């Protein structure tokens, strides 16, 4: 489908879609079923022998997953994608497909709190150790390599301090040592950054954020070479982190407007960052689209746009943070990001609360930090609201 379509918006609307052969429905029906019937016993046996494409049981696949997977694979320039029940299920599935007891990982210190917990608290119980380090300098990677190192894992831009890692440079070092590079592309989205084209081996996503974009679904995805996605499917069917038909359908619907939404969020992010950079209540604005961002040149090289998330360091300590967050009216005081509505949160209050202090320090996650995730509202309204809350 859609082989002749080249533009991103056309792909997002049409990839994986076809009128329903039974009813002619232009949108795909919701396949709200746990199981699928076969016409003959032999056809079921053939399916089990993997001689046939199709569906048998929703934990192993569902037509609504297929639609979203087709769009995500195309967007990331991947051979295949796999939908999962959350971003965390996607991260865990991808890492378990690559690592086993005795293996070692290297991760960017500045990563999502849930992912940090998986790597720092859970995987060591299964014999997988992680070294956390600042990967802003790609050559630092060499010092952490061990003979058991299997995977380099990073987020760029990182959450919540918007630090960048040079995907191409890190991929080159990793590949020379026979390691795989996995990039969490949740923050950038494939509209702004395509890690596979820069040399990454696989991409993971929290579909909960920009991909779905409406704060009404928890979902995740892995995208990469067919062989790797097959290994992920095998892990997923054993772990059971399956999405469901309705959420996959919502995600497929959300994906149709991804590029339009991200474009607007890029514009809003830039406008809000520029406004706050000049504000006397703000000590520092962290946003890759600003000239003042220490990796602005890398951002321009590896990203097409800079996204809808920025963080600020406030003057005035905790009372100033509380006052600012309590006074905003348009922004929701909520975790998450990438949705149509703007959200604001203090990372140490929630998302990064259980990251131990030494790792918070390594990631630059301090108490004066506030993360702002802009939606698709009008920039003037966002700026007016932030201005009155800071006044
Ligand atoms: C939210 C998030 C995750 C986890 O995704 P869930 O869908 O909440 O499980 C992973 N990585 C990043 C960068 C995120 O923002």
Structural class: alpha/beta
CATH architecture of the largest domain: 3-Layer(aba) Sandwich
Termini Cα gap: 53 Å
Give the strand order of the largest sheet, numbering strands 1, 2, ... along the chain. Answer: 1-7-6-5-4-2-3
Task: Give me the count of strands.
Answer: 12
Cofactors and ligands present? pyridoxal-5'-phosphate
Task: Itemize the secondary structure elements and their pairings.
Elements lengths: L7 H7 L26 H8 L14 H14 L3 E5 L2 H12 L5 E5 L4 H10 L6 E5 L6 H5 L4 E7 L11 H10 L3 E5 L4 H4 L9 E5 L13 E5 L1 H14 L5 H11 L2 H20 L4 E5 L9 H7 L6 E6 L2 H11 L4 E2 L9 E3 L11 H7 L5 E5 L5 H12 L1
Parallel strand pairs: 2-3, 2-4, 4-5, 5-6, 10-11
Antiparallel strand pairs: 1-7, 6-7, 8-9, 9-12, 11-12
The chain binds pyridoxal-5'-phosphate.
Question: Care to describe what's here?
Answer:
This protein is α/β, with parallel strands linked by helices. It folds into two domains: about 1-255, Aspartate Aminotransferase, domain 2 (3-Layer(aba) Sandwich), CATH 3.40.640; about 260-390, Aspartate Aminotransferase, domain 1, CATH 3.90.1150. About 40% of the residues lie in helices and about 15% in strands. The protein contains 15 helices and twelve strands. The chain has helices spanning about 10-15, 40-50, 65-75, 85-100, 115-120, 140-145, 165-175, 190, 225-240, 245-255, 260-275, 295-300, 315-325, 355-365, 380-390; strands at about 80-85, 105-110, 130-135, 150-155, 180-185, 200-205, 220-225, 280-285, 310-315, 330-335, 345, 370-375. The strands form two sheets. Strands 1-7-6-5-4-2-3 form a seven-stranded mixed β-sheet, sandwiched between helices. It has a five-stranded mixed β-sheet with strand order 8-9-12-11-10. Helix 8 (about 190) links the parallel strand 5 (about 180-185) and strand 6. Helix 3 (about 65-75) runs parallel beside helix 10 and helix 13 (about 315-325) crosses helix 15. The model has no long low-confidence stretch (mean pLDDT about 95). The structure holds pyridoxal-5'-phosphate (PLP). Pyridoxal-5'-phosphate binds near residues 114, 159, 186, 187 and 209.
């Amino acid at each position: 489908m859609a082989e002749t379509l080249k533009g991103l918006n056309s792909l997002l609307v049409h990839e994986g879609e076809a009128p329903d052969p039974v009813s002619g429905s232009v949108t795909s029906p919701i396949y709200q079923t746990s199981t699928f019937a076969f016409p003959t016993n032999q056809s079921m046996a053939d399916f089990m022998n993997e001689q046939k494409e199709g569906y048998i049981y929703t934990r192993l696949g569902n037509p609504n997953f297929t639609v979203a997977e087709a769009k995500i694979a195309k967007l990331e320039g991947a051979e295949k994608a796999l939908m999962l029940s959350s971003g965390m299920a996607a991260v865990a599935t991808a890492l378990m497909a690559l690592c086993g007891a005795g293996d070692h990982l290297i991760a960017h210190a500045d990563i999502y709190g849930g992912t940090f917990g998986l790597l720092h608290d859970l995987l060591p119980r299964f014999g997988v150790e992680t070294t956390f380090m600042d990967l802003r300098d790609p050559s630092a990677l060499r010092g952490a390599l061990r003979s058991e190192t299997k995977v380099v894992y990073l987020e760029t831009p990182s959450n919540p301090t918007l630090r960048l890692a040079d995907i191409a440079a890190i991929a080159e070092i990793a590949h020379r040592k026979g390691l795989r590079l996995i990039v969490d592309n949740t923050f950038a989205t494939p509209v702004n950054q395509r890690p596979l084209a820069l040399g990454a081996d696989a991409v993971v996503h929290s579909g909960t954020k920009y991909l779905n974009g409406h704060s009404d679904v928890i979902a995740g995805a892995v995208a990469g070479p067919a062989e790797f996605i097959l290994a992920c499917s095998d892990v997923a069917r054993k772990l059971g982190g399956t999405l469901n038909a309705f959420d996959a359908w919502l995600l497929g619907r959300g994906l149709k407007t991804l590029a339009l939404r991200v474009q607007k969020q890029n514009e809003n992010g830039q406008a809000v960052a520029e406004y706050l950079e000049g504000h006397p209540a703000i000590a520092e604005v962290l946003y890759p689209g600003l000239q003042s961002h220490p990796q602005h040149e890398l951002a321009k090289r590896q990203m097409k746009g800079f996204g809808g998330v920025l963080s600020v360091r406030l003057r005035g300590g905790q009372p100033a943070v509380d006052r600012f967050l309590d006074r905003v009216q348009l922004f929701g005081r909520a975790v998450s990001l990438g949705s149509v509505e703007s959200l604001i949160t203090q990372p140490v209050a929630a998302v990064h609360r259980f990251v131990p202090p030494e790792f918070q320090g390594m990631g630059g996650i301090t108490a004066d930090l506030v993360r702002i995730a802009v939606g698709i509202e009008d920039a003037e309204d966002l700026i007016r609201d932030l201005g009155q809350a800071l006044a």
